Amino acid sequence: MVILSKVKASTLMETLVATVLIVIVFILASMILNNLFSNSINNNTQAIETHLNELQYLKQHSQLELPYTANFQNWSIIIETYQENNQSITAFEATNRKTNKTVNFIQNANQ
């Protein structure tokens, strides 16, 4: 007759606790990744910076009439020229209408 040896195994309660812990870890990880991706999408200003560079090029080649206002996707663009210390300075400013984020830069007349 064969003697059956007792095999150590986990109980149902231990299995359920381990499963719940794994699920909690996956939920937290997915929430963190979702937050990172949404922040990277909301803070992406590459398209408006490229458009402002195009407008700067047009201004340098006297193909842009100032003051200039326009809308580009969700951005409001304002370009103005003013005098400071006997120099003509052009201010490029773009404001996102949804997030109120502002991208701006200044160009001197000698650039």
Outline the structure in words.
The protein is α+β, with helices and mostly antiparallel strands. It has 2 domains: 34 residues; 63 residues, Nuclear Transport Factor 2, Chain: A, CATH 3.10.450. Helices cover 41% and strands 29% of the residues. Strands 1-2-3-4 form a 4-stranded antiparallel sheet, covered by helices on one side. A hairpin with a 2-residue loop joins strand 2 and strand 3. It comes from Algibacter marinivivus. Keywords: Membrane, Transmembrane, Transmembrane helix. This is Type II secretion system protein.
| Cα-atom radius of gyration | 30 Å
Spatial order of strands in the largest sheet: 1-2-3-4
Q: SSE order, as H and E?
A: HHEEEE
Under CATH at level 1, the class of the largest domain stands as Alpha Beta
The CATH architecture of the largest domain can be given as: Roll
- Structurally, the number of domains stands at 2
In this structure, how is the largest beta sheet organized?
4 strands, antiparallel
- Sheet-strand content, in percent, reads 25-35%
**Spatial separation of the terminal alpha carbons:** 98 Å
How is the CATH topology of the largest domain named? Nuclear Transport Factor 2, Chain: A
Low-confidence stretches: none
Number of helices: 2
- Tell me roughly what share of residues is in helical segments: 40-55%
Which class best fits the helix and strand makeup?
alpha+beta
Mean pLDDT: 88
**Based on DSSP secondary structure assignment, what is the total number of beta strands?**
4
